[in-house]
Each structure stands twice: as structure tokens, then as C-alpha cells.
Amino acid sequence: MGVIILYGFFCALLLFSLFKKHWGKPQQRGNLPPGSMGWSYIGETLQLYSQNPDVFFATRQKRFGEIFKTHILGYPCVMLASPEAIRFVLVTKADLFKPTYPRSKEQLIGPSAIFFHQGAYHSQMRKLVQGSFSLKIIRNLVPEIEAIAMSTLESWCGGKIVNTFYELKKFTFDVAVLSIFGDLDSPIKEKLRKNYCILDKGYNSFPLSLPGTSYNTSVLARKKIGQILFEIIRVRKEKNSVQNDFLGSLLNFKDEKGEILRDDQILDNIIGVLFAAQDTTASILTWILKYIHDDPKLLEAIKKEQKPFFEANDGGNLPLTWAQTRNMPLTNGVIMESLRMASIISFTFREAVTDVEYNGKS
Ligand code: HEM
């Protein structure tokens, strides 16, 4: 059994337990891919954290090929970096693998979040997420999302230099908060933002739980986020109001036996969705801005497409509607093409549930 990392656009996959099972039994290890397992226990974790992760993976890929072994974050892994290998793990032989994350990352998000589960609980959480972020729900949020976009743009005025990705992370955080909680009081939202930023900063740091380390600071911020969310949940339960947002669906959920979700399950899934939604969306928005910036003709064509809606909305005084957003083929084409071109998620993890052989390596 084992873990895998998928890298690149999904260029690499980490196979952890595949090795764990036979650790220390060389006669049963099979034909492992080339690569280095580094030092005992810490493996190559220090090398990974002492350089840009893309350089770490790319140098090994160049040296060993598209399948290589390594040992990071406490796990022996296999890295896969070819479309065929990734299709093998995610599509054709998906039943031989299960989603997994290094424990350090699971601790920061929360063990009950959707990512760390399979089976009935996973399907239930998936349905809840899909329902709360469905077009049916999102279409009603268009005016509020537009208002957040306008206020983000206004905050860039005045000739100051901004970091596009970080600014768009603020924007996607606000949109995520709107979809999860509906209206949230400003002071609570700011407290949540502050602690979520700290958690986010340490998410990819070296997982050393010592006072002062980035990882430990993140763990402490995670605890504070827990307290803030428990309080939000308590107040919402007290009000007993039915709300159409993600928190509302988590609170209303009952499984087939009539069991409701525990507060810690609700909390972990909220942090999970924040985590899944914020960076990914901010990243694609940043790419879209870059592509448009690099192609002035495209920018002009997009403006031309959008101008009639701007004018119909009284120069932006009336809110944008869902129907208008559906009637912008060029704008939508640019979004879809950017999603195709840009590598938003550079790697992910899987754990083999049984011994797996691929291209003569196992
Ligand atoms: C451009 C934006 C996005 C991209 C490129 C993206 C990409 C992905 C990918 C590749 C996965 C699979 C990861 C894996 O299997 O290891 C995933 C999972 C997931 N994403 Fe997104 N995502 C985006 C936006 C969002 C948003 C806005 C949400 C908000 C709800 C979201 C929620 C999730 C959840 C809950 C999962 C786990 C699904 C499961 O375990 O069944 N994602 N995303």
C-alpha cells in the first residue's frame, strides 16, 4: 500500500504506503523506480524546503525521469509526472488509490474535511459542497460578488503598486466567506481573515512544531479559527434561522439514520472549502489578468463585448445579472482557455491501497 504525488498540471503523484508496507523487507519491495530516499526518517524533506519546490521536483525529474522515488514529510513516495501515469492513477486505476495528505497538512485543515475521506461520508460532504456552490445558488449571489469586485478594484486606485495574486486572494476570501456564511459581521470577518492568512502562510512550511516556527504559528492560528467558527456556529444555532449558505446546509444535514454533523465536522469542512476555493480561484484570476494584459487586442475585444451591459446597467449603477454573465461568449471563452493553459494545482497526493505495478515499476 502507498502514497503518491501528482505534479505539473497534475504533474506528480506521491505514493506513500505502497512502500510503507514493505519497509525493511527488501525481498518484497519489488522493482522500485529510481531516485533517492535521502536520510533516514527526514528523507529529502530538508532539500525540498531549502529550495523552490518546482526546482526540487524538476531536477529529480531531469535526473531520474518521469517516475522517481523520494522521501518527504515523513513518507516514502513515488512521484509521477506524465499525463499517462496520472491518468492511470486518477482515472483507469483510480480504485487502487485513495486520497491522502501528509499529516502536517491534515492537522491544519482538520481531519473531518472532505479531502481526507472516502465512502459514504465523502459522498455526503461532496453533495453538500456541490449543492451550496451550484449555479442555482451562485446565480443569486452575482450582485453581491460584483459589489465585492468593485470594492476590490476601488482599493487599488491611487497609483499604488499591488501584488495581484495577494489582492485577488483577498477578493476570493470575501467571496468564499459570502458563500459559506452569507452576511458575516465585519469584525468577525476580519478576525477570521487575519488568522486564515497566518494559517495559509504556514501551510507549505517545514512542519516543525516548535515555538516560533511558521508551522507552529499556523497551528495556533488554526486553533483561533476553530474558536471563531465555533462561536459563529453557536450563534447560528441559537438563532435557529434557515439559511441557504454552506454553513446552513452543514447545519441542516441529516444522514439516512437521522444523525446530524458534529461541530468539529462542520468546522473542518468550512476550513476545507476555504482552502480549496481561495488559492485556486485567485490563481486562475491572476492568470486571466496576465493573459489579458499581454494581449491588448484581446482586452479591447472583451471591453467591446461588455460595454453594452455596462450601458444597459446605467453605467454600472444597476447590478450585473446572471443572464448578462451568460451572454458574454468571448469573456467566458477567455476564462475557459485560461483554465486550460494555466497550471493551477501543481501537485496532489494519493495513497495506494494495495501493491501497484506501473510500467514494470512497483
Ligand atoms: C479554478 C478553480 C479551481 C480549481 C482549478 C480546482 C481544482 C481542483 C482539483 C484538481 C481537485 C482535485 C484534487 C485531488 O483530487 O487531489 C479539487 C478538489 C476539490 N475542490 Fe476544487 N478547484 C477550484 C475551485 C474550487 C472552489 C471554488 C471550490 C469551492 C467549493 C472547490 C472545492 C473543492 C473540493 C471540496 C474538492 C474535494 C472534492 C472531493 O474530495 O471529492 N474547488 N479542486
Summarize the structure.
The chain is of the alpha/beta class. Helix 7 crosses helix 8 (164-181), helix 9 runs antiparallel to helix 10 (214-239) and helix 12 crosses helix 15 (329-341). The chain is globular, with a radius of gyration of 23 Å.
- Helix and strand sequence: EEHHHEEHEHHHHHHHHHHHE
Amino- and carboxy-terminal Cα gap:
10 Å
Level of helix content? Answer: 55-70%
Quaternary state reads single chain
Which features characterize this protein?
6 strands, 362 residues, 6-stranded mixed sheet, single chain, binds protoporphyrin IX containing FE, alpha/beta, 9% strand, 15 helices
Description:
It is a single chain. Helix 9 packs antiparallel against helix 10 and helix 12 (263-294) packs across helix 15. The protein has a domain at 2-116 and 345-352. Strands 1, 2, 3, 4, 5 and 6 form a 6-stranded mixed sheet that branches. A hairpin with a 2-residue loop joins strand 3 and strand 4. It has helices at residues 17-20, 45-49, 53-64, 83-92, 103-109, 119-132, 135-155, 164-181, 186-202, 214-239, 246-252, 263-294, 296-312, 322-325, 329-341, and strands at 2-7, 12-15, 67-72, 75-80, 97-99, 347-352. It is α/β, with parallel strands linked by helices. The structure holds protoporphyrin IX containing FE. Protoporphyrin IX containing FE binds at residues 99, 114-115, 126, 129, 133, 273, 276-277, 280-281, 284, 344-345, 348.
